[in-house]
Amino acid sequence: MTVVDRPLKPTLAAVAREAGVSAPTVSKVLNGREDVAAGTRARVLEALEHTGYKSPLQRKNAAGRTTVVEVVLDALQSAYVVEVLSGVLEYAAVADVEILLNVTGLQQASVLSPERRAQRMVDEGRGGMIVVTSAFGSAQLDAFHRRQIPVVVIDPLNPPPGDVVSVGASNWAGGKAATAHLLDLGHRRIAYLGGPEAAECNQARLHGYMAALMAKGVPVDEELILQGRFRTESGVEGLRALMRLGRMPTAIFAASDSIALGVLAESRRQGIRIPEDLSLVGFDGTYQAEESVPALTSVAQPLHEMGRAALRFVLRQLHGDELDSRRVELATHLVVRESTAPPAAQAV
């Protein structure tokens, strides 16, 4: 009878020999401990890859157990979040993945230290995480990375570390398209109501707005640029602030549909007609933009596909696939509806 040699599964000891360190040091690296020198950590990670060692979590998934991916949200009221989440859930059904929601506005998990939070994910056997919130900074993401937990951030407010995968939309191009549409209608005094000033996506939309103005030779008027949050109250407060200038703009580019809906609500209270007195463009392309009165012209992000892509990239990392890029940017497109028209003086 012929005995077929089967390759032995690599052990911690084998990884330790490969890296020239002790087995406890390898264990520290696997558990994301910080008391390991950077050079030593690099050697251990290289040895883990070379030997093909699989962590207990990876072995669980390889054995066919259901993968659980946590999705972190700051709130569920946002149409943006709902549409992203629908894409995640649709792909999860196809990939046989369970989704665990963590709404940081409702739960106390966010008070855990980055290290404890990351270790809890390992202890509970979760396969990875999708972040759709601004609550996660570099410290949290670094803690997950040290434990080899796949994380994907959707349209991050702040640039994530270079080794973290992010999925977003072409914000600069969308901002330019929105403003160019208003310029083509004849508007020259166009306000920008943005989100958080430091947010990467907000900056890109603002720069697209400015680029469109400059391309037409229209000076950028700083008093027409107001920053806030991606919330309806920023639209309400923004319109009130613009009215206090004495000379109203003829059009507004709002950096989110939520901001634009706030402008719509306040314009009704103030007796401002849209689009007869004021044209309005949003950003996101949510179902709320289509259902508003008047229907909102908006830059549509592929929110559903962004959710699908985020889960797809979590699973690819979990399976050890090589990724071509750490930044995935999907195209936006302008959807023209009823909230934009030529300025009143030019209207026929």
According to DSSP, the number of beta strands is: 12
**Which ranges are low-confidence, i.e. pLDDT below 50, for 5 or more consecutive residues?**
1-7
Question: Mean pLDDT, rounded to whole units?
Answer: 85
Strand content: 15-25%
Which strand order do you get reading across the main beta sheet? Answer: 2-1-3-4-5-11
Could you tell me the radius of gyration in angstroms?
24 Å
CATH fold label of the largest domain: Rossmann fold
N-to-C SSE string, H for helix and E for strand: HHHHEHEHEHEEHEHEHEHEHEHEE
CATH class of the largest domain: Alpha Beta
**Main β-sheet description:** 6 strands, parallel
State the helicity in percent bands: 40-55%
Structure description:
The protein has about 350 residues and is of the alpha/beta class. The protein has three domains: about 10-55, lambda repressor-like DNA-binding domains (434 Repressor (Amino-terminal Domain), Orthogonal Bundle), CATH 1.10.260; about 65-170 and about 305-330, Response regulator (Rossmann fold, 3-Layer(aba) Sandwich); about 170-300, Rossmann fold (3-Layer(aba) Sandwich). Helices cover about 45% and strands about 15% of the residues. The protein is built from 13 helices and twelve strands. It has helices spanning about 10-20, 25-30, 40-50, 55-60, 80-95, 115-125, 140-145, 170-185, 200-215, 230-245, 255-270, 285-290, 305-320; strands at about 65-75, 95-105, 130, 150-155, 165-170, 190-195, 225, 250-255, 280-285, 295-300, 325-330, 335. The strands form two sheets. Strands 2-1-3-4-5-11 form a six-stranded parallel β-sheet, with helices on both faces. Helix 5 crosses helix 13 and helix 8 (about 170-185) packs parallel to helix 9 (about 200-215). The chain starts with 11 loop residues before the first helix and ends in a 13-residue tail after the last strand. Residues about 1-5 have low confidence and may be disordered.
